[in-house]
Amino acid sequence: MIEDILLVPYIDLGNFPNDLHLQLNQTQDEQMDAEFDVDNPAPGKLATAIADHKAAVATENSAYIVSRSSEYTEQIAEQDAIRDTKIDEATSVANAMAKVASLPQMQQAAQVWLRGWNVYKPNPKSAYEAETTAIQQWYEDYQADADQVAAAGTLGITQIIADMVQANNEVHRLIVLRENTQGQQQNTTVSLKDARTATDKAYKWMILCLNSYKVVDQDPDRFTAVTSNLIAQQEYYLGLVKDRQRTNKRVQVKSEEIGNHTYATAREWTWERLIEDGKAQLAIDKDDPTRIISTDKKAAKAGTLCLALKGVPVKPTDEVDVDKTYELIPAE
Fold first, then answer.
1. How far apart are CA 217 and CA 194, in angstroms?
2. Is the Cβ–Cβ distance between 307 and 253 less than 8 Å?
3. DSSP labels for 141-189?
4. Is residue 315 within 8 Å of 288, Cβ to Cβ?
5. Model's pTM, two decimal places?
6. Least buried of 137, 177, 269, 274, by fewest C-beta within 10 Å?
7. Coil, strand, or helix at residue 319?
8. Can you spell out the DSSP letters for 39-52?
């Protein structure tokens, strides 16, 4: 009977973020490839449906890459700001110590480090690519010079340098991605919205063909493995979408002592789960595990502040309600 046959459900992908929409469709294609090959080809219309879906996903991928061009530009600016801050921190320390004759060891270290830095002297006001190249060239020499490395350690700027180089590497990586995107744009005429719509249509037909063959095929068990895998992937990505939605939901916590805060949350999250996320300035009280307290630095001056709703302390196991405003009150 048809109700006893395992079928792949067609899920509406309309609320999927662009990246997860693309990833789900790509992984569904990979499962089809793993199931069907030369020795075990997909039958008739299913083979055509799989090929059509792959073509639609390829078009969507191109459109997605193009759509991220502006996103890469924003990320480049963010990483550039980080590396510029680190350059300022490192050079400020070195320049200051180079003038302190009363601390000869620090002064000598500063002079050694600045000597190497000034060979390339990366300029935060220069173009992204020029600054990136200057830092790369300086860092290559820096790593090969034990005296410079030791000088940085003496000055206490080793971690600052590491952070600067990491941000610089990110700028370089993002510039390459943006250039690839701009090159791809010349070959892409379909909008991402239209590409997604075409993929959804092809996906629906592919699933319909697979399910139809399961029903009419003389050996329906032939598709059991791929069906189970496709369903498992659907459930996995639906979970990712649900978790991603937490960034669109925020709960407000008010306090006269330390000001107001908002925290990202998700459906059906408890306060304990939100605290585990690590982004809220809250913690479960070690002295009383049934209540939640603020870990904000200003809270120390106000004493222990306890999370409450309408004056009643909130328990870690209580579900977060984004439609209500919580408060921090002095703990009894």
1. 34
2. yes
3. HHHH-HHHHHHHHHHT-HHHHHHHHHHHHHHHHHHHHHHHHHHHHTT--
4. no
5. 0.48
6. 137
7. strand
8. SSPPPHHHHHHHHH
CA distance 320 to 316: 9
The answer for residues whose C-beta is within 8 angstroms of residue 250's C-beta and 6 or more apart is 262, 263, 264, 265, 322
Q: Which two tokens stand for residue 23?
A: 């990833």
Sign of the dihedral through C-alpha 155, 160, 165, 171: negative
Q: Do residues 164 and 86 touch, judged by C-beta distance below 8 A? A: yes
Max Cα separation, the chain? 91
Instruction: Return phi, psi of residue 299, to 5°.
Output: -65, -25
Cβ atoms of 316 and 292 closer than 8 Å: yes
Distances 91 to 101, 124, 131, 170 between C-alpha atoms, Å:
18, 12, 15, 21
- Identify how many contiguous H helices and E strands the chain contains and give both numbers: 11, 7
Neighbours of 105 (CB within 10 A): 10
Q: Please name the helix (run of DSSP H) or strand (run of DSSP E) that holds residue 262, with its range, or none.
A: strand 261-265
Torsion angle of the four alpha carbons 16, 20, 21, 22, in this order, in degrees rounded to the nearest 10? 160
Over residues 245-286, the pLDDT tens digits come to 655 578 889 888 777 888 878 767 889 888 887 778 888 888
Report CA-CA distances (Å) from 3 to 6, 213, 282, 314: 8, 15, 49, 46
Structure tokens at 233: 């992937």
- Among left, alpha and beta (phi > 0; psi -120 to 50; other), residue 191 is beta
